[in-house]
Queue: 4 jobs
Job 1
Amino acid sequence: MTADRIIPKSFGIARRFILAIVIFSTVLTLAGTCLQLYIDYRKDLRDISRQLTYIETSHIHSLINDIWLFNDRGLEAQMKGILALPMIEALRLERKDGPELAVGKATSRHLITHNIPLSYQHLDKTVPLGTLHITASTGHVIQRMKERALLILFTQAVLIFFISTFIFLLFYQLIGRHLAIMARHAAALTISTLHEPLNLERNQSPQRAKDELDLLVDSLNSMQAQISEYLQERRQIEDTLHEQATLLEDEIAQRQQTQEELNVINSSLEERIADAITELRKKDNLLLQQSKLAAMGELLNNIAHQWRQPLNNIAVSIQTMQLLSKAGELSQEEMDRDIKAVMDIIFYMSGTIDDFRGFFIKDREKREFVLQEVVEKTLNLLRSALDDKGIMVSVTAEPDIRAIGYPNEYAQTLMNILYNARDALLEHQVAEPRISISIHQKESRSVLTVSDNGGGIPNQILPQIFEPYVTTKGPSQGTGIGLYMAKTMIERNMGGTLSARNTAEGAEFRIVL
């Protein structure tokens, strides 16, 4: 399936965005139109009511006099005069003593009837004369409301159309087409295409300030570059480790042969012994480098394991954004949240690379360092190797304990001890494996102890535990040079002491510096 087939049209999000604006604008326009028409309708009704009130105040007195005087001709003339007023369709005079008199005819479907009781004041008495029924039409009001509604709706529809079209084009130009490019790039991304950067069709002028899309593109390109660089470095390291492992086997065999030859050399051959010792020291340095390479390989495995879940999370986030974008359900808020989640993972992975690079850099000279910082950096690199095995690590530290030495070699020594503790816990299948690290100061010297509940070191091996090629593991699991190199770095290079002893639960290593 090609990238073009799985990516939706570039303006799919814009279409939904504009549809929402049109719907909202239409509802708002209808509501506003209804409110305006209702207000106008109430105003027209008040006008009709005022006209009826005017009739009652200005014509009723003369009507009462004509009724009292039985002046039917005058009554009819006055009622026709009232009928000539706007919106009045019919009048009907219902007399108490006399025939009913009516003028006009109600033809409209929308009518208002107003009843006015008539009475005459005679000798301090109120004499009821009848009731005047006035029928007014509201048809013209309704017609005017319809015409006004059509005019408002037409003008608003035209306005909404032009505004929506402008917003649609603006959204597509600024965001939509770039989202489509990024989605196609992400869908087509493979290991073989990591070197191809993502480029948007935008003005690349240096005067233009960077926005969120530029930052996202830079972050994605940076992530691709880091992943590509990591894969290349990993291939190179694997090749180097393979070569060094072969050399290590040859050197170990040669060292054993040299050791056998030294046992039979005559004690008088001092010059040959001195040469052999010089050769051994060179091989010790080589072993130190090979030990670092082996530790580097172990760390690479840990980092690769630590990266599986973040890389999987990145893949899931990208696929989710693709699916939501294809379905047209990716909002700006969701896109910002997913991009932030991916960026947090990338910064975490970048920090892991920085820790790995700095771990094996050889310190040029001794310097003061904080023990707890070295412990935390080492545990961060070994976290997956311990957590995945269910090993609980606890650290108890007095504040600001410092030492003078080579912090990277100190960290490598601690890493070697932790690996041995892990292997012992796994070998003895401890139900609740744990490692305890304690940092304190004693007589102006820093003391770090690492203890476990893995059963301890066999008594016959404990006195020789720091000698080269001495190991508690099988031949296929250990070379026996790790603790030898650790003791060399602590005691020869930094002037400290490294010791080991058994406790009631397991082994305890102690570094004094």
Job 2
Amino acid sequence: MERLSFVLFLTFFLAVNGSGRGQDGSEFFSSLEKIIQTPSLMSTVACANPTRADFELQLFTRDNPMDPVPLNMKNPELDPTKPIIVIIHGWAQSPTAYGMQDMKKAYLYRYDSNVIMVNWQDLAWDYYPTAVCKVPKLAKMIADFLCTLSEIYDIDLETVHFVGHSLGAHMSGVAGYHTQNMCRQKIGRITGLDPAGPLFVDTERPNRLDSSDASFVDVIHTNGGFLGYLGNCGHADFYINCGSIQVGCTMPDYSLNSFMNLPMSIGMCHHMRSIDIWTEAVQTDNFKAIPCYYCPIGCPPVFSMFKTRTMMGERCPRNASGGYYVKTDVKKPYALTSLI
């Protein structure tokens, strides 16, 4: 299943981006052939160590909501008395990619805060296994920066909230893991938005998002088993419409001519829906979740429909645990006033 998901993921990448950056079609399909024939998907993957120049931490505040300010240790615009929200984009994305700016604006509207967007787009456009290989290394560098920032400004990392999409979700988790080792502090919260699934199914916990990475980890699942991770990886895991296929995302016909559009349908809309859902959850407190002990397999939880609802979003209670089912509308606003 992981191999199929990954092949679809790469085909989707080619369909969306032509032949990619710096990679012609023959090279792509040669890589794809190796993946199909290789027993262990990561067995032949190696990557260079990224440097500090390979990513940028962009600071936004209410006083400066539009123009990114490169964050450094002496940056006077960082207010250590205000909450810190760190947003990390996914593979083949950037801080200006789909939904990222809307999420940033939603946070600045809701909180007078420091919003830091991690721009790692130069590495995010690498061949997917190479990008995956670099995630733990980048995460460790982010953790080191955060620990130094905490020491200089006397910042309690409990006030820090990471929000990561796809590979960015795992990067957030690994950064949280390393802050505990480097500066003996736990990040307050990590929200994973449909954490990437391909190449992470059998990954050990230190190299992927896990409930031990922060004081509270909540996860939004929208494309599990395809581009997203299928299964619990937080304290509270919210399965949107059962977590794999989203309402309102149309499927193409299955003719040969539409083959290249199939991965886009299976992945793009469903995988990116987690961004839209979370942005709305920042803007409103309207998402109610039903306990779903057997999610994602036993979904929807028909015997839990009358149990107490749990709020999904910024006001999700810290004692929330296990799986939850969230039904949505087919278009914005996605939150439903009734779950039955």
Job 3
Amino acid sequence: MMSQSSGSDANSISRSWSPICKCDEEKPFGWQKVSLLEARDEIRHLKESVKAMKEHMVSVSGSANYDHLKKPKEEKKKLEEEMKKMEEDKKKLEEEKKQLEEEKKKLEIEVMGCNEREKCLGS
């Protein structure tokens, strides 16, 4: 097998890049210059927005200490506690309902008994 060194390699030109012709070394003008200036401005704008976002993240994480993440958890706990209380209240109300239904049945039986007594006495 032949060993290839960088100096004797047939593809050594592709390894070390250099301008192919002198036109690549000329300064841009016309539409090329305008395009490059627009790209430069866009890159500057994007860098500024990234910097602003990073500063915002630092200020949010430093000052708020992730309070915005804690709030939903706290709200969830409060809602769960309220649900438990409501379920307990529901159970109590159902028990009261059963008691009232039983009392109603007893009173209906008493009313029926009283009505029969009146019939017996009235006749």
Job 4
Amino acid sequence: MLRLDVGRGASHLPPFGKDGEYAAINSMLDQINSCLDHLEEKNDYLHACLKELLESNRQTRLEFQQQSEQQNMEADGQGSQPPV
């Protein structure tokens, strides 16, 4: 990995000239850009997965709520009828 010491002058840079320095910096920036693109793709994928999970949980909660209300109504209906 190329390490540039900012503020120390060009004498501390690797001995391959300014064109080589720019090429090395461009290469590092390309690698960083590639890593950031990869992270962005992973972030988008995780975001989509979490949205799907959230929607699934909402649907499950709604179904559970409806079943619970139905059971409560059935229990209330049985309790209000006189015994036979």
